[in-house]
Amino acid sequence: MVKTHSLQSIAYLLVISAPSGGGKTTLCQRLLQDFPNLTLSISSTTRPPRGVEKNGIEYFFLTHDEFEKQIQAQQFAEWAVVYGNYYGTSKRILEEILEKQQSVLLDIDVQGAKQLKVNFPSQCYRIFIAPPNLLELEKRLRNRGTDTEESIQRRLNQAKLEMQEGMNFDSVVINDRFEAAYQELKSILETKLSLFPRQK
Ligand code: 5GP
What we know:
Bound molecules: guanosine-5'-monophosphate
Distance between the termini: 38 Å
Structural class: alpha/beta
Shape: globular
Helix content: 40-55%
Number of domains: 1
CATH superfamily: P-loop containing nucleotide triphosphate hydrolases
Strand order of the largest sheet: 2-7-1-8-9
Number of strands: 9
Number of helices: 7
Radius of gyration: 17 Å
């Protein structure tokens, strides 16, 4: 008997990266609501929780020592230092999701995205969410009102580097208007990955 290979049976690592202020978090939340076959990977980090963030929900909050021990023990599928803190994706969490035949949504930075593409070349699909331009990004960072001037400048410099790396991704979506960007994202999942949204 000839074995057919259905695209639907492939579980993907769907990586979404964007400079901070790029609108990535809201786009990811909407994808999770609409696509039943997508599960969010919860990362580990050494940055302290912000506001109402809880351990095990937004992140697993680790100490520097704990994080470095896990690096030594090769427990991360990827990790990186972002704005002075460690961030990483646990191999065990990825495996648990993939075992359930779910695709994994990873909201991670461009360094981590690069590592996953090397380690999982056929399963990893990277989408870069780009701001329309750097002026607009600066405006969004200022409007969000959570960053100091120093932090805004640091994020803008970082964004320039990330936008260069983002051009190597499988797809780039310009987040000019939220709804249009979301529809483009949704259509990439459907056409390139054969992931389908829940029927309303
Ligand atoms: P935040 O501290 O604002 O939640 O996240 C800061 C940056 O770290 C964001 O760009 C986010 O995508 C990235 N990030 C979050 N989790 C991970 C991870 O597991 N690995 C990597 N490489 N980056 C991550």
